[in-house]
Write a structure and sequence with these properties.
The chain is mainly α. The chain has helices spanning 2-8, 12-22, 29-41, 43-66, 76-89. The chain has one domain (2-65). It contains five helices and no strands. α2 crosses α3 (29-41), α2 packs parallel to α4 (43-66) and α3 (29-41) crosses α4.
Length: 90
Amino acid sequence: MRYFLLRRLPACKQMTVLMSESMERPLTLRERVQLRLHLWICIWCVWYLEQLQLLRATLRERAAEDDGATATTLPPEARERIKRALKSES
C-alpha cells in the first residue's frame, strides 16, 4: 500500500513547500489529504514538519518575551550596503 501511494503522491520537495504554506494559509481539502497521506509514508517529512512547528513555536515565544520593546532598525549605512548589493545582483 505504501509503495502504491509513494508512486502516486507528490514528491517530498513539493510536500515541504506545502508544509510551509500550511503555516501561512489554510490548505484545500485536496492538499490536506495529500499531505496526510504523504506524512503516513515518509518519516523524513514528519521530522521536517516537527522541526517547522518547533521553530514556529520558539519564534513566537521569543516574540512574546520581547514584546516589541527591543525592536531595532538597521543603521543607514547598512541599508545602503544592502541596496547596493541587491542592485548589483540584478
